[in-house]
């Protein structure tokens, strides 16, 4: 059991619900320790703005707070005082218990024991169709899973084999802009870890900032810029759970060097090298696309492509010790010129995905087919 008193001192005044979900509970607790809500991150249930009801709840909830505190890991970022809180007070999705429950449910409903996890980006869900002997679960049927709300993200978890390798594939991912807490959108990574996944492969659609890039290029991500992270929006914010990983994970090796090299080799064999790139992906919160000034700024900061996903998944996957490999399909050119008539739009993003899907799927599946061979090196 532990207690914290950090909330009034550490929460920045300007922080909003949207930008730092991990801090919602802390802010709510700064008013009343017992204004906490459920585990699912529903902001309305954190009691923000419901001052009248708070006092009544405080007595009836104290026993459940103590019960939940059995699973606590002490938050090394907070000072200790007198109010007892549990991990679930901070983690609005993605707690060990939640992930364990989801993983156990999946393990009891499928015979597949995946070592490879795949996340399909916007319009790139066709990869899941390559999976042999598929066992498919709708996200809405999986305990603790969020729902997909974006066109081009089917919302299905597919188990089976890809080129003989047992794998699990997210046909559709979750994004910050959908309104989920950041821990909730990355919950599948922790579930995959508990399922036995060792290697994560992510795809996304992204806007090309690098002026040499063309629509339809595929960029191997070699590094990222976590823009929301600069404002404290990081999926690992909050108490660290040592069962998943260390408090301060290294990110300078986030994108596995050997897997990147393998992808170059495979692309060369397949005759894809002319559209294969390697570069830096910058994540923003979305859902609005960037202004011209923002694109210019990101480009000058060293980003080659800009998108709204992947980075949070990679941070959580790396924290849990999984290898990561990620590809961006350059679905549109980021507009950098005030005279340009181009306008970023989701339909173009999906259309580019349709046009490049087959090659992207071939590239990923061939990389997967070589993983065992490469595994000897890891
Ligand atoms: O899931 P990804 O990153 O592929 O989706 C991108 C970002 C937005 O969700 C959407 C914009 O068209 O595509
Ligand atoms: N932020 C962002 N995400 C994208 N996803 C696909 N294209 C884009 C883009 O231009 N900007």
UniProtKB/TrEMBL annotation:
Regarding protein family, the annotation reads:
Belongs to the PNP/MTAP phosphorylase family.
Q: GO cellular-component terms in the record?
A: cytoplasm
Alphabetically sorted, this entry's keywords are: Glycosyltransferase, Purine salvage, Transferase
Database matches in PANTHER family: METHYLTHIOADENOSINE/PURINE NUCLEOSIDE PHOSPHORYLASE, PURINE NUCLEOSIDE PHOSPHORYLASE
Q: Provide the function of this protein.
A: Catalyzes the phosphorolytic breakdown of the N-glycosidic bond in the beta-(deoxy)ribonucleoside molecules, with the formation of the corresponding free purine bases and pentose-1-phosphate. Preferentially acts on 6-oxopurine nucleosides including inosine and guanosine.
**Keyword Transport in record:** no
**Protein name (record):** Purine nucleoside phosphorylase
Quote the Pfam families the UniProt record gives. Answer: PNP_UDP_1
- Give EC number(s), comma-separated: 2.4.2.1
Quaternary structure (record): Homotrimer.
Tell me which species this is from. Answer: Sphaeramia orbicularis
Is Transferase among this UniProt entry's keywords? Answer: yes
Instruction: List GO molecular-function terms, semicolon-separated.
Output: purine-nucleoside phosphorylase activity
């Amino acid at each position: 059991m532990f207690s914290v008193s950090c909330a009034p001192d550490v929460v920045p005044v300007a922080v909003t619900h949207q930008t730092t979900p991990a801090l919602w509970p802390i802010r709510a607790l700064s008013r009343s320790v017992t204004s906490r809500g459920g585990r699912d991150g529903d902001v309305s249930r954190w009691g923000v703005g419901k001052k009248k009801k708070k006092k009544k709840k405080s007595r009836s909830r104290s026993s459940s707070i103590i019960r939940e505190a059995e699973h606590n890991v002490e938050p090394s970022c907070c000072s200790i005082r007198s109010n007892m809180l549990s991990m679930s007070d901070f983690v609005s999705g993605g707690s060990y218990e939640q992930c364990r429950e989801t993983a156990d449910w999946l393990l009891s409903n499928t015979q597949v024991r995946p070592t490879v996890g795949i996340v399909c980006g916007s319009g790139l869900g066709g990869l899941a169709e390559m999976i042999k002997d598929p066992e498919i679960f709708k996200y809405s049927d999986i305990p603790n899973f969020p729902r997909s709300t974006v066109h081009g993200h089917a919302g299905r978890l597919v188990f089976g084999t890809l080129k003989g390798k047992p794998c699990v594939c997210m046909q559709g991912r979750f994004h910050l802009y959908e309104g989920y807490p950041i821990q909730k959108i990355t919950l599948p990574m922790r579930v995959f870890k508990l399922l036995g996944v060792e290697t994560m492969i992510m795809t996304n659609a992204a806007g090309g900032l690098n002026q040499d890039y063309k629509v339809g290029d595929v960029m191997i991500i070699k590094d990222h810029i976590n823009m929301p992270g600069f404002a404290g929006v990081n999926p690992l914010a909050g108490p660290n759970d040592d069962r998943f990983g260390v408090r301060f994970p290294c990110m300078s090796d986030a994108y596995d060097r050997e897997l990147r090299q393998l992808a170059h080799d495979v692309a060369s064999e397949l005759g894809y090298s002319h559209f294969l790139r390697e570069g830096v992906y910058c994540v923003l919160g979305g859902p609005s696309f960037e202004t011209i000034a923002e694109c210019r700024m990101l480009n000058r900061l060293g980003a080659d492509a800009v998108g709204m996903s992947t980075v949070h998944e990679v941070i959580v996957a790396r924290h849990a010790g999984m290898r990561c490999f990620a590809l961006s399909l350059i679905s549109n050119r980021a507009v950098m010129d005030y005279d340009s008539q181009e306008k970023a739009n989701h339909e173009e993003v999906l259309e580019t995905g349709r046009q490049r899907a087959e090659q992207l799927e071939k590239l990923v599946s061939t990389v997967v087919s070589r993983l065992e061979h490469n595994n000897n090196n890891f």
